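Mods, move this if it's the wrong board.
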Amino acid sequence: MDLLCWGIGELGQTGHDKPGDIGPEVSQLREFTVARLGRVKLLACGSSHSIVATGH
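Not the wrong board. Structure tokens:
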């Protein structure tokens, strides 16, 4: 399983390790491993928010 995130990231809102805009060609979030993503129940992203809900 992969988690991809791209867009405007001047404040780090894309979740990548550095601020700045991210294009889809480099969008994989390597910090999210299969073991960590396996707990995700809900993922929602908007123009100014990101939410991840786990089963805990």
